């Protein structure tokens, strides 16, 4: 039976460079776990360590360990933020021993990350020696179970499948990899596309991402034997892009959906004191970037405060790291003193903190202008919490009939939906009860099965 080789190069790179996994990284990790559960004898993971033909195996246990460590490791930061420091304000005095403690915590965090990455690396000479020793087909079966460091060029067989589930757009020579896989190794190539925003909505993206994303897909997409998408909306975008670029797709895009991972708070674990009290806030989980539309929620919350008064408006909590194209937003929040504390920013929350934040919120909001799926919406529902969300792109696919929608570009519409929800607390309670009673979270195993069915890999 064929083996499905999953490229996790960009996942490992991201986890080594960032404090917390973001949306695509969570999708890749959860999808990898589900693939292993569904077909453990036919799933292997690889990463690129040098040129376009140089891939080595990576143990799934190592990937899981690194992801878990990144999702929960302490990050030196202000635990919550209601205002930004002024350049004229030196801030609170930190004694020398305190500064040393902060430096040590930062160094320890970086050292832990590099220890995980080093376990995945090893010496090139050692990899080659191991590959030579296990070159024969007699050792093929046992070699597939090697933890890490074996060469894909020695293991791959005709008929195997190579899957890219992440975002390796920085490799401008990736088309060479695909041609080598297809022409020399006689493998098929699969590609999971999360969204096409750098092409269709470049105004929301970093200039470098636009260039690398566009060039990468222009050369790689025509070579894909299997194209998978997270949503029907993304599948339409892929087809539109192919028509515009006159790309002849080998096969039509297949929607696999996105599962939900429900992170419940651990029984007996005390709620962190840095989080706002339960029942006092509305939650917005997302990286702070232009496409996520935080600025619109700031306008809505300012109007709520003007019309209702501070005592009658819950706090709006932004939970996520600061991304790109939001410097103006952060400056405006500083100038407004974070609306007197009615907007708070919890930067890079751990999965445990996210579980507590979901558990204690009144409801969640997600006003994103465009999404390839809308993971915060389905995670809100999986937590039993009502969500008010954008009616744009794929978000209704994630929210279904249990979510209330608004036009993300219309502040009056958002204000109306938020106001109606706040005005009817009993209806909000009943809405939450209905979600907990009827919502069936999408399963990652179903996403994995669609890939395995399409590629012909056997399932357990």
TrEMBL record:
Keywords noted in UniProt: Glycosyltransferase, Transferase
Domain (Glycosyl transferase family): residue spans on this chain: 272-436
Gene3D superfamilies: Glycogen Phosphorylase B
Source species, domain of life: Bacteria
Keyword Glycosyltransferase found: yes
PANTHER family according to UniProt: GLYCOSYLTRANSFERASE WBBK-RELATED
Entry protein name: Lipopolysaccharide N-acetylglucosaminyltransferase
């Amino acid at each position: 039976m064929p083996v499905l080789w999953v490229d996790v190069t960009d996942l490992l790179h991201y986890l080594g460079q960032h404090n917390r996994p973001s949306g695509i990284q969570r999708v890749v990790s959860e999808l990898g776990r589900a693939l292993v559960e569904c077909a453990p004898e036919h799933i292997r993971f690889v990463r690129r360590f040098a040129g376009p033909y140089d891939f080595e195996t990576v143990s799934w246990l190592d990937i899981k360990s690194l992801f878990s460590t990144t999702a929960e490791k302490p990050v030196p930061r202000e635990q919550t933020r209601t205002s930004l420091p002024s350049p004229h304000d030196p801030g609170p005095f930190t004694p020398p021993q305190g500064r040393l403690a902060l430096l040590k915590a930062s160094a320890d965090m970086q050292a832990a990350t590099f220890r995980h990455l080093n376990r995945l690396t090893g010496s090139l000479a050692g990899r080659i020696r191991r590959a030579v020793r296990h070159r024969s087909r007699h050792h093929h079966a046992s070699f597939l179970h090697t933890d890490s460091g074996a060469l894909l060029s020695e293991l791959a067989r005709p008929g195997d499948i190579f899957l890219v589930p992440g975002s390796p757009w920085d490799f401008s020579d990736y088309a060479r990899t695909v041609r080598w896989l297809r022409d020399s190794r006689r493998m098929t190539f699969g590609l999971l596309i999360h969204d096409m925003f750098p092409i269709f909505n470049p105004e929301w993206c970093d200039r470098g991402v636009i260039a690398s994303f566009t060039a990468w897909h222009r050369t790689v997409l025509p070579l894909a034997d299997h194209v998978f998408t997270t949503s029907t909306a993304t599948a339409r975008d892929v087809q539109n892009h192919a028509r515009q670029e006159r790309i002849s797709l080998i096969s039509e895009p297949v929607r696999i959906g996105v599962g939900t991972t429900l992170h419940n708070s651990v029984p007996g674990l005390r709620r962190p004191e840095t989080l706002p009290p339960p029942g006092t806030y509305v939650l917005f989980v997302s990286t702070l970037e232009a496409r996520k539309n935080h600025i619109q929620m700031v306008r809505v919350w300012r109007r709520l405060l003007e019309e209702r008064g501070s005592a009658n408006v819950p706090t709006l909590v932004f939970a996520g790291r600061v991304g790109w194209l939001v410097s103006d937003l952060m400056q405006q929040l500083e100038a407004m003193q974070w609306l007197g504390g009615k907007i708070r920013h919890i930067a890079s929350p751990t999965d445990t903190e996210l579980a507590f934040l979901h558990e204690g919120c009144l409801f969640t909001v997600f006003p994103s202008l465009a999404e390839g799926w809308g993971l915060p919406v389905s995670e809100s529902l999986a937590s039993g919490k009502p969500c008010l969300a954008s009616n744009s792109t794929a978000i209704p696919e994630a929210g279904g009939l249990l979510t209330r929608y608004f036009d993300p570009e219309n502040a009056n519409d958002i204000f109306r939906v938020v106001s109606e929800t706040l005005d009817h607390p009993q209806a909000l309670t009943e809405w939450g009860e209905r979600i907990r009673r009827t919502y069936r979270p999408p399963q990652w195993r179903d996403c994995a099965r669609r890939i395995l069915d399409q590629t012909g890999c056997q399932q357990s």
